[in-house]
Amino acid sequence: MDRVVIVSGGGTGIGRAAARRFAEDGDRVLLVGRREAVLRQTAEELTAEGAVRGGIGTLAADLTGPEGAQRVRDEAGARYGRVDVLVGSAGGNVKYASGGKEPPGGLAGVAWQWRSDFESNVLTAVLLAEALTDLLQAPGRRVVLLSSIAAYRGSGTGSYAASKAALHPYVYELAGRLGPHGATVNAVAPGFVEATGFFGGRMPQERREALAAQTVTGRTGTPEDVAETVFWLASPGAAQVTGQIVQINGGARYGN
């Protein structure tokens, strides 16, 4: 295809895998994230792999604030003149993304964790989608946001799970707004996915095996598993699929 695809959080993990999948199909992909060096490295690596047919661009922007989201809107309009697909993959669990930095103690720490997870997982998705809404109001446009199995089962901290669950009603509402224009809005909710850096390299082997045992497929997920589902949801074949949360967890939804 020859679509313009924006992937937030596109420098690593699931976002990177999704970007690769679209680029392989000939789409023009814009990687968006906070770390410019990571985005450029990913673009260079994918190009070197021969995974790029449509071209990969990069844009560093902090999507937790309106200025960053507006910057993406302005740049996308100037560079491409349109946006066909938005993949909202930016986010993470502040518990694992703090780089070992100790959070504040007491209630200040609770407020910091909840606010940080909300900004990282909700604002990054909502602000970017809202900034691009005018470009997404057309037949064939697609929005796919990244939720998590934690939205159904909890995450041990509450704040991460709650922030991912907050995306679900937003998906329903945005699907209702964009549907009359011929666009679709969905989310995917992966279970445990390896090779993403989500746990900051602190996943004990025993815990990994326990998570794999919760599935009925007998294995943990991969970024490519999620990327393929995201790609399908953005395809013409999924034109009648909207307002849905698609779980990708090997049957672990009701695991322990």
Note the topology.
Elements: E1 4-8, H1 13-24, E2 28-33, H2 36-49, E3 56-60, H3 66-79, E4 85-88, H4 94-97, H5 106-131, H6 133-136, E5 142-146, H7 150-153, H8 159-165, H9 167-178, E6 184-190, H10 205-213, H11 223-233, E7 245-248
Parallel strand pairs: 1-2, 1-4, 2-3, 4-5, 5-6, 6-7
GO molecular function, one term: oxidoreductase activity
Pfam family, one: adh_short_C2
InterPro entries: KR_dom (IPR057326), NAD(P)-bd_dom_sf (IPR036291), Sc_DH/Rdtase_CS (IPR020904), SDR_fam (IPR002347), Sec_Metab_Biosynth_SDR (IPR052178)
Write down the domain tally. Answer: 1
Task: Classify the secondary structure makeup into a structural class.
Answer: alpha/beta
Give the oligomeric state.
single chain
What is the CATH topology? Rossmann fold
Strand content: 5-15%
Largest sheet geometry: 7 strands, parallel
The total beta strand count reads 7
Basic shape: globular
Q: What is the CATH H-level superfamily?
A: NAD(P)-binding Rossmann-like Domain
Uncertain stretches of 5 or more adjacent residues: none
Order of helices and strands: EHEHEHEHHHEHHHEHHE
Helix content range: 40-55%
How widely separated are the two ends?
41 Å
Average residue-wise pLDDT: 91
Order of strands, widest sheet: 3-2-1-4-5-6-7
CATH first level:
Alpha Beta
In the CATH hierarchy, the architecture is: 3-Layer(aba) Sandwich
Over all CA atoms, what is the radius of gyration? 17 Å
Tally of separate helices: 11
Protein name: Oxidoreductase
Keywords: NADP, Oxidoreductase
Pfam families: adh_short_C2 (PF13561)
GO molecular function: oxidoreductase activity
